[in-house]
Amino acid sequence: MKTLTNLFALLLISASLFAKDPATKAFEVTITGKGQPMLFIPGATCSGEEWKETVARYGKDHECHVFTLAGYAGVAPIDTQAYLDTYKTEIISYINDKKLNKVILVGHSIGGFLSLCIAAELKDHLQKVIVVDALPFYAAVFNPNAKAGFDEAKAKSRLANFDRMDEGKLKASQIMIASSLCADSTRWEMIAAWGAKSDHKTMAWTMTEMLGNDMRQHIASIRVPVLVMAAFKPRPDYPAFTKEYALSLYAAQYEQCKSCTVHVTPAAKHFIMYDAPEWYYQEIDTFIKGV
Description:
The chain is an alpha/beta fold. The chain contains 13 helices and seven strands. The chain has one domain: Rossmann fold (3-Layer(aba) Sandwich), CATH 3.40.50. Pfam families: Abhydrolase_6 (PF12697). Residues 1-19 form the signal peptide.
């Protein structure tokens, strides 16, 4: 009986320890290099491998913390109804728990959106933020009168669409999405594979959450310098979509962030790091070295 009691107590202690470590559930992270910390949050469905070349470049002088969010690219999903809030909270806890200071926070797409959310809330620890093609309120791009709020019916519809696809259709769909977001065709298979391995509910819910979350006023509280790299690629079938138009769209969304600078790519789709690497690295180099 005493043995059973001790075993039960041990199980309770173990359960308590796991309950106090939610960060291991919200993301996977790898750490390489030494120096000033740089944290990299990838885009929707993407693995932290998205940052491979970027980390190779900056890992010589920085300690690189590369995240893959739960539910993306084969990482086990979390059980929550508020994915983005959970990611944000746990990344902030990660920064605090590891006592990271003068952090350069880098995010792409939904990772860029999360970077804005983190910077708006975390008043210490950050030094600079780099946002790779992300906006504080995506829905307003498609509908200027869009209202904030989570559309559960839309999330369920997206989930049903994913669930209806067999493996072949899902992969074909992800290839099509990759080709629309990245001009470098050599990257499509990799991007599509990440998407095909992602959890369907996580994909549906995170996209719907981001579209319904309006951060345009909240980013006014960001005090550290923010570099926003905005994707632009000329399209002959849309002559009105000019570089100047793209800049005006992004500048309007970031108007309340007084420490923010928006730079538009010469020619790149959403995966700027793949489509315009020289421009991308030059922007980061200049921003990091700036006062």
